[in-house]
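Many introductory courses stop at the sequence. We go one step further.
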Amino acid sequence: MNWLGAVPAWCWWLIALVLVSGGQQYRVVAARGETSTARSELADYRLQVAERDRRTAAQARTEEQRRQAVTDEADRKADEKYTDLEIRAADAESRAVGLRGEIARLRAGRSATCGAIAAQQRQAGTSAVVVLGGLLEEADRMAGSCTAALERSRIAGLTCESVIDGIRRP
């Protein structure tokens, strides 16, 4: 221990300072290495997240386009059905007009042939034909409008079902 006393105290302080400084420098270098590794990992993670987001967005766009195509196709088919319905309704209406004309002709013929029958019987018979003819005309009009409304509802329901089925299908 004799040689320890030969070294001045300030040298001991200097040696301690150099050792502490060296240790701190080592810690700083190690922390910088860990920081650069962490930054590198963070950058890689950000790239992975960005790529995943890009793929997810592309898949969402593809799915949206598929669903829109299904909806557009269903709309096109529904328009075709509506057009066909309008054509059939117009045809039915023209036939109904013909039937109404026939009913009017029968009414006129009935009143002409009833001239030989007594006044009371003629009046009762004419009024019955008129009432029945009017009821038939009104029933025909109502049936036509109800049929058209029901057919439109059916087409809309089938279109809705086809859209939902198309959207659910992957």
